[in-house]
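Researcher: Next sequence.
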Amino acid sequence: MFVFVCARCDAALTAPLSQVALPLHARQTYGNGAQLPVLMEAGTFAVDPEPWGGPWRGWDEVDPGEAEARGIYAPVPRVSDGTPGAVVIAPGDIRGTRLIPEKRGGSCCGLDGADGPNTACATCDLPVATRVDDCSLWQTTRLGSDAVRQVLVGGADAEPLSWTELVQSAEGMSPFEPVATWGGRSGSGHYWSWSPRWEAAAGHALAHLMVASEGHPVQVPEGLTADVFQRALDTLLPAGPSRRHAVLAGPGRPAPGTGVDILLVPIHPQTGQIWAPTGPAASAHLVPLPLGVWWWLVSPRTYMPVPASGGIPRDVLRDHPVPPRPDRLFRADRGTFLNTLVRLPAVRRPWMRGVLENAMRAGRADIF
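Model: Next structure:
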């Protein structure tokens, strides 16, 4: 466990925290006026290795060599010159700070962090963090890497769970959830939708699927996996008879058979490492998915009615209405897809230019 303290006065600024991987949806912007929940679980922190926030430069102001050194291999609208390495925590885990009222940014329903650090150490007034809670943004507090220090407390940090332990305790992440809204005529409310976290995870995985395809059409397993990926794959990739095949693989799953080119595998939620197979499947392309999304795909819940007596078990259908399904087909998050794709070196291959062009026009196909 760690506590983060002010770099100037050593005042404690957080509750004790343990490190986990940065969620894939950390930079997602979702919908219009949506009230997204807190990004990080209470008691955890993650380090964002990339710069975030202003000042900004346009793509034409960035030297190609500098862009590649920063891991950007294709044009983007703008590049952040902020300080990398921010510590991302839940807003409820901050301690000993105060907001800076004049640093509210261009906010709509909350704080967007556009004016830089908006939270100061209450002891010495050093700007130490940026609180973000505006509409369509995940709620976070980002501690500046140059404004805080990390202090170990309570002895050595616990070892990450093994893949076996993770599978034994894993819970799937539902692909559907209510999305809260702000500022409507009737006040706050919500609507049922495909999960924003699933849409971001699909955008990230779809970028890796583009690279793994090597320009060939890709077939994924039927069912929910096909609902999430197949329409986008068929739209973005050229048609042809030579299909590559992707399957779900991971801890506790049977070893992939022969003829499998691509594996959809889980990401360790604590370390961020991607599960990797051994044996003949070791040469397959790996496409990473958050553990909760992967687990739901390999162990989908059906929620069929089950006769029962006494107390109602957890998996028995209750007598209240079942949550409605979304009224549209699944769409991957375009921003996450493009942000991931431009950071994969393979995007420089000539055939990938067509993928990028298709992605820019894909709004007509309603896949993003």
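Model: The helical segments are 64-69, 163-169, 196-213, 224-236, 291-298, 334-341, 350-361. DSSP finds seven helices and 18 strands in the chain.
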